[in-house]
Design brief:
Layout (H helix, E strand, L loop, with lengths): L1 E5 L5 E6 L5 E6 L8 E5 L2 E5 L18 E5 L2 E4 L9 E2 L7 E2 L11 E7 L2 E6 L5 E6 L4 E6 L6 E10 L16 E3 L14 E11 L2 E10 L3
Parallel strand pairs: 10-12, 11-13, 12-14, 15-17
Antiparallel strand pairs: 1-2, 2-3, 4-5, 6-7, 8-9, 14-16, 16-17
Length: 219
């Protein structure tokens, strides 16, 4: 441990304990330059400059291994992986390399309410799955916020017949939609029956083409 006291003459008075526990006392009056540090070597104190350098390499590691904390103040290394492998977290354990990437895609279901007479507009930026209860055979579905250039996007539309009333026919869509097999889908007519329609927009260099298909019917 080292203590410093500056005297009236600008001299630093030092008291220090070396590694053997011996108490030392001394004074010196070296030039004090901003950014310099005081170093004590063999009981002699001098000012010296300090230059930032790269951190010392971690020991015990090998090529391709990645360090991780296995516990507080404890660093271990993973095994080296194979080119292209993703690294999967092991929680509090060792991370591991994997040859398989598992991707789970989920879309939030929006409740669009009841499709009545008139035009209902679906925004391509509002979500990918929307559900409607049929309320009229004169409903029209339109789209806004077309996907940007050189992208592809699909909207899934769930159409449900009411528990009572109806049945209602499929809403009118834009005539620019190219339907599967060239035919507009026909909705189920039973109470509470469900049909699912998908509309895919493909925008190539600013020109958008729409494709439609019924992927589930009479449910």
């Amino acid at each position: 441990m080292t203590n410093f006291v500056k005297t009236d003459t600008g001299t630093l008075q030092l008291s220090f304990t070396d590694i053997s526990g011996t108490l030392g006392l001394g004074a010196f009056a070296g030039t004090q330059t901003n950014g310099f540090t005081l170093q004590i070597v063999s009981g002699v104190a001098t000012w010296s400059s300090v230059s930032a350098t790269n951190a010392t390499n971690l020991s015990s590691g090998a090529a391709g291994e990645i360090p991780y904390q296995s516990a507080a103040n404890t660093t271990l290394f993973t095994a080296a992986g194979t080119t292209g492998q993703p690294l999967l977290s092991g929680g509090t354990g060792s991370p591991t390399w994997s040859s398989t990437i598992i991707v789970t895609l989920q879309s939030a279901l929006q409740n669009g309410g009841t499709l009545g007479t008139g035009t209902t507009t679906i925004s391509w930026t509002a979500g990918d799955v929307i559900e409607y209860t049929m309320g009229s055979s004169s409903a029209t579905l339109a789209f806004s916020n077309t996907p940007p250039s050189n992208t592809i996007q699909t909207i899934t539309i769930v159409l449900i017949q009411p528990a009572s009333g109806g049945p209602y026919t499929i809403p009118a869509f834009s005539s620019t939609i190219k339907w599967d097999s060239g035919a507009i889908p026909v909705l189920a007519t039973g109470a509470s029956k469900t049909d699912i329609i998908q509309i895919t927009a493909i925008n190539v260099s600013g020109t958008t083409t729409y494709y439609g298909a019924q992927i589930f019917g009479n449910g």
